[in-house]
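On clarity, I found the account of how folds are encoded harder to follow than it need be. What matters is that the chain and its backbone geometry are given together, residue for residue. I therefore recommend that a typical entry be quoted early in the introduction. An entry of this sort, consisting of the sequence and the corresponding backbone structure tokens, reads as follows:
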Amino acid sequence: MSACEVWFYHLERARLDQVLPELLEKTLARGWRALVNSPSPERLEQLDAWLWTYRDDSFLAHAVEADPFVPRQPIVLGEGGGNPNQAQALFLLDGAQGADLAAFERCIVIFDGKDEQALASARARWSACRADGHPVVYWRQGERGGWERQT
């Protein structure tokens, strides 16, 4: 198994609640499962409600990590630790420290570009991931709102 790719998404023009559902949809379209970690119970509660209602014609089936049926869920929201649904994609929000990256194909770090602390944390994580031998990719929102891979 190759090293987990770590993708950094720098939010500048959109909010997390606009970006996360799109990224989760792309993850599921690949046939992957997702684990979304945040150290904030309030954030997880907000996402739990939002993923059921973010669009009139769609929802993202998911569970919180305390749910007894977590192993069967395509998306799990939690505070971290392990990989309860055998996800291939790990999403880290709000500076969450993830589980062992070796358990995942891809780790997606989403951070707020207007928050200096979040920027500093993302830079430190980028350096640590590179030092650990993980391929890293940096995505920035373009003028038209789409994601542009930076080199």
